[in-house]
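HUMAN: Can I see a protein plus its fold?

ASSISTANT:
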Amino acid sequence: MSEIPLPDTEAATGVFVEHRELLFGVVYNMLGSVADTEDVLQDTWLSWSRRGVDGVDNPRAYLVRIAVNHALQRRAVVSRRRETYVGPWLPEPLVAGVDGADDPALQTESVSLAMLVVLESLSPLERAVFVLHEVFGYAHTEIAEILDRTPAAVRQVAHRARAHVHARRPLYEAHPRVRREATERFVRAAVGGDIAELMEILAPDVTVWTDGGGKRRPSALRPVHGRDKAVRLLTGYAKRGSTQTHPLELRHRRVNGDDAAVLFQDDAPYAVIVLDLTPDGDQVSALYVVTNPDKLTHVQKEEA
C-alpha cells in the first residue's frame, strides 16, 4: 500500500509569508479588527498548510479565496459580539510610527477609518466584493471565482455596494497638508478646552463618534450630532483626561493612511483622533475618537 505524500510544509510556509501582507489587507478591510484578522490568517494558514502547494497553479488566488471565505465566516462572530458592545463601534485603527514602518501590517492597502465606518453598513458579501474590486483591483471575473458566484451576480453586488458607499461617502479628500493643519488646530483647542476655537473649527452639523467600549470615561453611548453637543463632549474629555500630574501628550501619526492625532498619557495610548473635513477644508465635518484600550494595544509611543 503506497503512502500518501505529506504537504511540503517549508514550501507552503514560504508561499504564505510571501502573500501575508496582501491577505492581511484584504481581511482587515473586510473586518476592521486586527485581532479578528490575525485569527482569520491563522485559520487560512492551517487550511493552506494541510493543502500544500502541489497542484496549485495560482497560490496567490488560492490563498485569497481561502482567506476571504474564512473572513466571511468570521463576520457572524463579529456581528454577535457587536450586539453587546457598549456605545458606538469604530474600526481598530492602524497607527504608523514616526517612520511609518514599524509593523508590516501597516504597509498594506487600507481604506481610511471613515470609509471603514461606511463599509460597516454593507452586507458581508457586498463588503467583500467592494474591498476586492475597489481597493485591490480584482476583476469581477476573479471575484466570481473567489466567492463561487457568477460574474453577472458579482457585478450586480458591486454596483449596489458602490452606489451605497458613494451616497454616504463624498469623493472629496482633503490635501494631506490641509488635514494635518486642521488636526493640529483641533487638538490644540480640544486639549486646551478652548471653546471659542472649537466652535469655529467644528461645522454646525458635525458628528462625533467616540468608541470607548465602556472602558473609558467619558464616552457617548451613541454618535453625537451638532456643534454645541460636540463641544460639551470634547471639553469633558479634556477635563477628565488631562491633569497636571498626568497630562495628555500629542503625537501626529498616520492612521489608516491619513494624517491624524494620537494622545498619550503616562506613555500609554489614550486616544486616536481622526478628522473628516468639509470640502473647503476649513471645518471638521466628522470626528472619530477611539479610546477603547483594547483597540490601542498596537500603538507605541516614540520620542517627539
